Amino acid sequence: MGRLAERFALLRERGEKALMPFVTPGDPDLSTTEALVLAMAESGADVVEISIPFSDPIADGPTIQRSSQRALAGGVTLRRILDLVKRLRPRVEIPLVLMGYANPIYAMGEEPFAAAARDVGVDGVIVPDLPPEEGAALYAACRQAGVDPVLLAAPTTSPERLAFLAGETRGFLYYVSLTGVTGARRELAAGVEDGVRAAQKLGDVPVCVGFGISTAEHAAAVGAYADGIVVGSAIVDLVEKATSRDEAVETVAKFVAELKAPLRG
Known about the structure:
14% strand
C-alpha cells in the first residue's frame, strides 16, 4: 500500500477529510518552497501538491499562471523539483504529489520520469492535459514504479466516462468543481455534490474536489460530502502578496490550519 492509500485509510479511521494544499516550487525561490511544504505538513496538510511550472498552463487561471512564470524565470526545472522532493522526503511523512503538464514529463521520457519520481519519493502525479488513453504508456510506467497516476473528472464527464476514470485512477480521483480554470472564487459551483456522490458510488477510490475552493467555509461545505479538498490559487496568492519569506510561511501555515479545522470531523 502506497502513502496515498495509507493516508486516506488513516483519515477514514479518524473520521477526517483530506486537505491538499498546492504550491508552485521556485515561487519566489526553492528554499522558500521547501519551508512552505514543511510548514504545510506541520499545520495539518494531508497531501501536498507540488506544481511542475510550464509556459502554457491551460488549466490554470491568472494567479497560478503568474507563479509559473516567476518560477520558470528563476530557473526551475522538473529535475530541480525532483531534487526538492528528495530533500523533503526524509522530513515529511505525508504524501507528495506532482501536478503538471505533459510536455516537461515527455521531455524527460515516460520511464525515466517514473523511475526518478519513485527514487526521490513522489507518491503520485496529476497531468491535467493528458487523458488516460493518450497517457497509457506514462501511466503504466508510473504504476509499475509505485507512483499513483491520479486522473481528473469534471461536471461535464458522462456517467460512462466517470466509471472508467474511477476504475483507472490510483490514489484518488480529482474532481474538478467547474468548467473553467483554477482560481479562488467567492462562491462554490453548483451541482458538485451530485457529481462527487456519483463517483463515490463507483468504488472505494477517494474523491477529492479542487478548483475554486478558497476559504474555510468552502472547505466545510465540500468536506461534508467529498473525501478531500484541493486548495491552490488561494495559497499561491498569499505567497505572491507576502513581502518576505517569513511572512509567506507564517500566513500560509495559518491558512492551512484554518482550512483543516472543519475537515477534522
